[in-house]
User: Fold these one by one.
Assistant:
Number 1:
Amino acid sequence: MKVLEGLATKGPKTPRDLSKELDLAPRTVTYALQRLLRWKLCRKMPNLSDMRQPLYALNPQAAELLRRYGLDTAVREMPSGIGGPR
């Protein structure tokens, strides 16, 4: 997942920033962030510089998983439906 990798390498970001940096459609980024929130892999935080655009960051457990195993292995080890294709 490019969005997961973007959060892991670039820190807290707005959906707009992720969309631009990862060259993904805004709708794609929004959908991916919703899934990551549902699976408790990231968290949503207020953006004090622009309250219209929240910030998203990996939760500490997801960050540790990625740090230890790398993105490919971590995604493979996630429960069914999280990392794999739909």
Number 2:
Amino acid sequence: MNMKNIKKTFAFSLAVMSLFSTSVFADTININTHSKQPSSYSIDSKAISGTTSFTANGKNYTNHTGCAKLVAGVTGATTITCKSGSVDSGIMGAHANLYNTNGTVVKTTGWKYNTNKTSGFTATTGSTTSKGTYYTKGTTKAYNGSGYKTVGAKQSPIATMKSLDIEISNEELKERQYLYETKNMISALGVGDIEGYVSLDDLYSEDSQPNTPEEAVAYMNKIAKSNEKYKSIPLYDKDGETIIGEYHIDL
């Protein structure tokens, strides 16, 4: 199922469900008021989510997300594993978003696909050195014989870069919820640390995305041969229309 259609169909129910459980979809909003992470919070340097199991084209898969504190900073990752053994090139894909704990996406890696025969594949975001606590949300794809099956991964536990208290006002939470439900947008930290909003349709754009394993390999080879390191998407003001900057998706 197309990721864009999934989010548009379930936008309201996902936002409500996020109050009670971890969603299996890529991006939803927690609308609890006065969300706060205490500065004394600590966790192991690597945090991995539970797995989600699914099947595609007769093969069994699992996926999960992770958040790791490395020398270069905190990074997020989404992993897909074929439990039925190795699969050919272009069969598996993954996408990852790294968030800080006020629900703002700070790093994104675009869709990536395996280019070698393997049983596991991981897409990793760039790293951030800004102090705070972070988590990862991700989505995976597996070729089902006539296209790609898209399955969200569970949110990772939190990894702490440095201590930082974060509190979100009721006004800002209502603003975020409104933009999510009416314009399919989420909070993002753009280039130059400008705070704004990005469209989930832009973040998960299917433009030029492959429909077959052969196209997936060609897509990855084209990126590897190009000098492009990222794709820019618009960063919007709280009105959801005025462009105030840009957000980079790593290629």
